[in-house]
Amino acid sequence: MRVLLVEDDDRLAAALTTALSRHGHEVVRAALAVDALRLAGGVDFVLLDLTLPDMDGLDVLRRLRRSSAVPLIVVTARIEEREVLRGLRSGADDYLVKPFRTAELMARMEAVLRRGTRPLPVRDEVVTVGDVRIDLDARQVHVAGEQITLTRREFDVLALLARSPGVVRSREEILDEVWGDPLLSASRSLDVHVAGLRAKTGRPGLVETLRGTGYRLGSTA
């Protein structure tokens, strides 16, 4: 099996390469996120560190999942529960915290392969709701053909909902993904940004509130 090892620590990368090779795997190593994204299309498995010099590993993971269902395990020193949840929600098949034993890594890789490759999510880069057009790649929103200006976080909130139409996102999940801190759930930051989205688009139903649950992409009706 061809394994992409995304790890910027040379000593750890060398040790893992040796261990994987002993188990019959061919290892392709990338120390930078840009190389990982370029190489991921030609491998059977990805081991991804989250701390990379040119991009956060979670961003790499999200980009990979837009176009690839390759089995992937996050291998990182980040031990906080919030980081584990973010990794799994972003599309990782498993999450392994350093330091770990080689035997555990191999067992987890085998378990992921036994479960089978996850179906590739269908992600439209342009999401249309009524007369609202949300271009996720270009980070642009048009209403009735006119482009409107959103703040970075307003767009991030809308994009998170737009990537999974119909899926309810909890306040904690949105605050974690957009602000990086679920503890902000006691503040009104999210409410202010949702209000801004409704006002700027002129479509109050675009972001639907489910009281006590969270938010989801609504309609313009």
From TrEMBL:
PROSITE patterns (UniProt xref): OMPR_PHOB (PS51755), RESPONSE_REGULATORY (PS50110)
Keywords noted in UniProt: DNA-binding, Phosphoprotein, Transcription, Transcription regulation
DNA-binding region: 124-219
Pfam families: Response_reg, Trans_reg_C
GO biological process, alphabetically ordered: regulation of DNA-templated transcription
GO molecular function, one term: transcription cis-regulatory region binding
Domain OmpR/PhoB-type: 124-219
Modification sites for 4-aspartylphosphate: D49
The Response regulatory domain, residue ranges: 2-113
Annotated GO CC locations: cytosol; protein-DNA complex
PANTHER family, sorted: REGULATOR OF RPOS, SENSORY TRANSDUCTION PROTEIN REGX3
UniProt protein name: Sensory transduction protein RegX3
